[in-house]
Amino acid sequence: MNCHLLVPNLFWPASAGAGPYLERALPGLETLFARGRREREAGCSMERWLARAFALEAGEELPLAPFALRADGVDPGPHWWIGADPVHLKVHGARLILADASRFSITQREADELVAALNAHFATRDITFLAPRPQRWYARTSESPPARMSPTAEVAGMPVESFLPAGKAGARWRAIINEAQMLLHEHRCNAQREARGELAVNSVWPWGGGRAPARVPAAPYGAVWADHPLAAGLATASGAEVHALPASGEALVAGVAAAARDRACLAVINVPPATAYGDIEAWREAALALEQHWLAPLLRAVHAGALEAITLHALGRDFAYRVAYARRDRLRFWRILRPLPAYLG
Q1: Cβ atoms of 264 and 221 closer than 8 Å
Q2: Which of 92, 135, 221, 292 is the most buried (most CB within 10 A)?
Q3: How far is Cα 238 from Cα 233, in angstroms, rounded to an integer?
Q4: Helix, strand, or coil (residue 159)
């Protein structure tokens, strides 16, 4: 009955200092950090954390696309797949800055039009694009040599130069990014988007290439609650129960109580990547929702004995924290609650 909470995008880059955390009381987080057992860890994205948790990290590669694709409703079969997320690349001085799909809306009709244009252009190049969801695209190709690629979430809001694909297949995928950008920039769908004041979907970002393995490690969790397709796909492949993320911690407690009692459970809480774009107000709203809808009811459940413990995995680009909190920890009154910036270091 240990419920693990994975919360991406919770911490700002270290260079932001304490400013973004001010003017917002976060008693649930402060209780966990003050009275739980906390460990500071290296920063990472949700994708990289899940790859490690499900034992699918392969050196510098993260062969995750087939798992997300399956959860998006497409059987990956024996093919080699790669994520090809729709993105907006903006020139800023001498650099290209990437905005991911959290920063723009796109309809399925627009996605289908843009993917059709990509497929026509790359028809003789052993690559076929697919958009099972408007904000998540994939590409099928023959097995590619190893390449170092960063998940789109790790590049969001950043200059792309230091994240471009590298390794044996790096040149091929860099060329695909450039060609896609030139092709989509001129597409009528993007002309219409820009006329409406919307961001153009003017390139793709490749990451997570691989085949769906015949066997995957046993599930580290008995049940997983998540709306993100990667978490759901990994959980399904590893034999865990998979559930849609409920609206609040109260509903989650009821679900955990009905799941296998001898296994830990995982809930992936959706926090938008406001930290990547310097959007303080959006982050503060998300932090308040995390407090009210998740941490407060889960702490009450631990104190009442409905849960044995909660383990928070709070992620950020530069650092992360793992905080374990059990019922007995509520008695550690000598540990004074301090504001979150006290733990940033």
Answers
A1: yes
A2: 221
A3: 9
A4: strand
pLDDT in tens, 188-240: 999 999 999 999 999 999 999 999 886 788 888 999 999 999 999 999 999 99
Among candidates 232, 211, 209, 207, which has minimal Cα distance to 221?
Answer: 232
Radius of gyration (C-alpha) of the chain in whole angstroms: 21
Cα separation, 35 vs 10, whole angstroms: 19
Query: Structural domains in the chain?
Result: 2-56+216-343 (3.40.720.10), 65-211 (no CATH)
Angle (CA) 225 32 1, round 5°: 40
Q: Are 225 and 255 in contact (CB under 8 A)?
A: yes
This prediction's pTM: 0.94
Nearest Cα to Cα of residue 121 among 74, 181, 166: 181
How far, in Å, CA of 238 to CA of 230, rounded? 12
* Cα 221 to chain centroid, rounded: 18
pLDDT digits (tens, 9 = 90+) for 80-93: 999 999 999 999 88
Six-digit token pair at 262? Answer: 């001898």
- The letter for the amino acid at 227 is D
Please, which residues bridge with residue 80 across strands? Answer: 141, 211
Tokens standing for 260?
């296998």
pLDDT tens profile 53-83: 998 876 667 899 999 999 999 999 989 999 9
173 contacts 83 by C-beta, under 8 angstroms = no
- Residue-level pLDDT at 183: 97
Residue-wise pLDDT tens digits, 272-324: 899 999 999 999 999 999 999 999 999 999 999 999 999 999 999 999 999 99
One-letter identity of residue 272: P
Taking the C-alpha atoms of residue 38 and residue 14, their distance in angstroms, rounded to an integer, is 18
Q: Which residue has the tokens 């107000």?
A: 281
Contact between 148 and 171 (Cβ < 8 Å): no
The amino acid that residue 308 corresponds to is E
